[in-house]
């Protein structure tokens, strides 16, 4: 069983929906996209709530990145947006 640090859970699960298998993100959905792009949207969301639900995964994997890779990319995008001001 893989462990995900609490800060990663807080940052990743803010809005939209994300599915994990063995501690790795495998699929995400937001209002406008899915997969890696949706995971980035979720990581950069401003909402501060999350909910865990245990269920079987019915989606084909659309993400081939770790939580760390997703967070690093989300931070890079957020930094670029802040620099544009």
What is the distance, rounded to the nearest whole angstrom, between the alpha carbons of the first and last residues?
41 Å
According to DSSP, the number of beta strands is: 2
Structural class: alpha+beta
Number of helices: 3
How confident overall, as mean pLDDT?
A: 82
Spatial ordering of strands, largest sheet: 1-2
The H-and-E topology, N to C, reads as HEEHH
Radius of gyration: 12 Å
Percent strand:
5-15%
How much helix, percentage-wise, in residues? 25-40%
Uncertain segments of ≥5 residues (pLDDT<50)?
A: none
Main β-sheet: number of strands, strand sense, barrel status?
Answer: 2 strands, antiparallel
How many domains? The number is: 1
C-alpha geometry? globular
What does this protein structure show overall?
The structure is a single chain. With 85 residues, this protein is α+β, with helices and mostly antiparallel strands. It has one domain (6-84). Helices cover 39% and strands 13% of the residues. The protein is built from 3 helices and 2 strands. It has helices at residues 6-12, 36-43, 67-84, and strands at residues 17-21, 24-29. The protein has a two-stranded antiparallel ribbon. α2 (36-43) packs across α3 (67-84). The chain is globular. The protein starts with 5 loop residues before the first helix and ends with a helix.
Key descriptive features of the protein:
alpha+beta, 13% strand, globular
Quick structural overview:
The chain has about 80 residues and is α+β, with helices and mostly antiparallel strands. It has one domain (about 5-85).
């Amino acid at each position: 069983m893989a462990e995900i640090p609490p800060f990663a859970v807080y940052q990743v699960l803010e809005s939209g929906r994300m599915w994990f298998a063995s501690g790795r993100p495998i699929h995400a959905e937001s209002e406008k996209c899915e997969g890696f792009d949706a995971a980035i949207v979720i990581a950069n969301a401003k909402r501060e709530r999350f909910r865990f639900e245990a269920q079987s995964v019915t989606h084909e994997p659309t993400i081939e990145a770790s939580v760390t890779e997703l967070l690093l990319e989300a931070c890079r995008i957020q930094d670029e947006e802040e620099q544009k001001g």
